[in-house]
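seq:
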Amino acid sequence: MHKTHTGLNYRLYWSTWLVLLALTVTMILIGSAPIPRLYVVLLLGLAMLAKASLISGYFMHLRFERSVLVWTVGAGILLTGAILFIIIVPDGLRIMKLSRP
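struct:
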C-alpha cells in the first residue's frame, strides 16, 4: 500500500514550537548577556534566520513545496528586508548623529 502525504502530525508541530520557544528564550538571554554588542547582533541575527526558516518551512508548509516557490518567497522576503533597510538606516544614522554630544 502506498502512503501519501496528507499533512503533518501534531508531534512535529509541537516539537517545532518547542524549538522556537527555546530559540526565543535564548535570544532574550543573549540580549541581556554581558558580551560585546557585535556578537549580540550576530547571534540574534542567526537566531532570527533560524526561526524564520522553521516557521516558513513547517507552519507555512514551504518544506513540502517545489523549490521554485520556496525561492520566490525567500527572494520576496529578502527584497522587502533590503528595501526596509534602505529606508530606515538613514534615519537611524541621523538620530545617532544628533544624539552625540
